[in-house]
Design goal:
The protein has 146 residues and is an alpha+beta fold. The protein has helices at 2-19, 45-50, 128-132; strands spanning 23-30, 34-42, 62-71, 74-76, 84-90, 93-101, 111-113, 118-125, 139-145. It has a single domain (2-145), classed as Jelly Rolls, CATH 2.60.120.1140.
Length: 146
């Protein structure tokens, strides 16, 4: 039963994302254990700003991948309904990991900086980085599906 519910949730997340024009893809991070996920691709400024705001649940193997022009960036947890892990990526390598970022319901939410140039931000369930041993310098592979 749990597998059916998880499959439906993945379908809904990917389906809703596609309905709003998001592409989807698969990402693999080679940490202590290999992490594989289905991701929605956010590659427009309005999608970056929205991120995972107002989302109440993510499947264990899904997430949001923001593809950005290379820059030093930051995220915040404003209007988030669940804690997440944030993984900053440059090209094919993890450059910074924030674990278990708490939700923020105030106007002055803390910002979490990349501190170096990145071109992708992966947002996944809190606990994912710990579970898979994801850390700086881990290899990342991405496949975007039409």
């Amino acid at each position: 039963m749990k597998k059916i519910i998880a499959a439906v949730l993945i379908f809904l997340i990917i389906g809703i994302g596609r309905a709003y024009g998001y592409e989807s893809g698969k990402i693999v991070i080679y940490g202590k254990k290999t992490f594989k996920a289905e991701v929605l691709i956010a590659n427009k400024p309005k999608e970056w700003v929205l991120g995972l705001m107002y989302i109440r649940h993510l499947d264990k193997t899904s997430g949001l991948l923001m593809i950005l022009p290379p820059a030093k960036v930051a995220i915040w947890m404003k209007n988030m309904l669940m804690p997440i892990d944030c993984i900053y990526i440059n090209k094919k390598e993890v450059v910074r990991v924030y674990k278990n970022l708490p939700v923020c319901i105030t106007k002055n939410c803390k910002k979490y900086y990349s501190k170096s140039i990145v071109n992708m931000i992966l947002e996944v369930n809190a606990g994912t980085a710990e579970k898979y041993g994801i850390k700086k310098n881990d290899e990342v592979r991405l496949k975007i599906t039409p």
